[in-house]
Amino acid sequence: MSMDEIKAFLKCETPDAWVVNALENQDTLLIDHANCEKKAAATAVNLMYRYVDRLELLNKMSRLAREELRHFEQVLALMKKRKITYGHLTPSRYANGLRAHAKNHEPDKLIDILIIGAIIEARSCERFSKLAPFLDDDLQKFYLSLLKSESRHFQDYLDLAKDYADFDITERVALFLDKEKALILEPDEEFRFHSGPISVS
């Protein structure tokens, strides 16, 4: 999956103002990036516990969880090198803002969770790519190295959603992409990896 395909999938690019925010808040960027990797691993493991009868999901989520935890360790190593303390951050409104629109009954609930997972991975990939040219050599190299695995995670989630749905998921994907676009473009009060641009008071 190329970056052009991922950008074509998403309904907007990350605003330049968010890139400026990220460069001004690199400690927070890395702390929240670590949180995102940890949450991504936890989501994959939770799916493995909840849907034990779906072999393809179990295999893909097991691999995904291992990769996300490895990325978590790599972010921690970068933070240690930069003497950044890993502290608590409040989560952004992004993930919950998407999950608020997920259905509560099965099997539609699983399909929506998988679609949301695909969108989050696609946006993460897009942000790594957009940020990389402006970062120092170490961080740039690391973020570019994540593109391949993150784009595969996006494809895995989307493929599973298509495979498990007994309907065309196009409309559900479009709905969540519309919600995601708003979350990415609307101003936020605090900078986070998946926040919108920070509002200027």
How would you describe this protein?
The chain is an all-alpha fold. It has one domain (14-185): Ferritin, CATH 1.20.1260.10. Helix content is 71%, strand content 0%. The protein is built from eight helices and no strands. The chain has helices at residues 3-9, 16-24, 26-50, 55-81, 94-99, 108-131, 137-164, 170-185. Helix 1 crosses helix 6 and helix 3 (26-50) packs antiparallel against helix 4 (55-81). The radius of gyration is 16 Å and the shape is globular. It starts with a helix and ends in a 16-residue tail after the last helix. 35% of the residues are buried. The model has no long low-confidence stretch (mean pLDDT 96).
What topology does this entry show?
Elements: H1 3-9, H2 16-24, H3 26-50, H4 55-81, H5 94-99, H6 108-131, H7 137-164, H8 170-185
Helix pairs in contact: 1-6, 3-4, 4-7, 6-7, 6-8
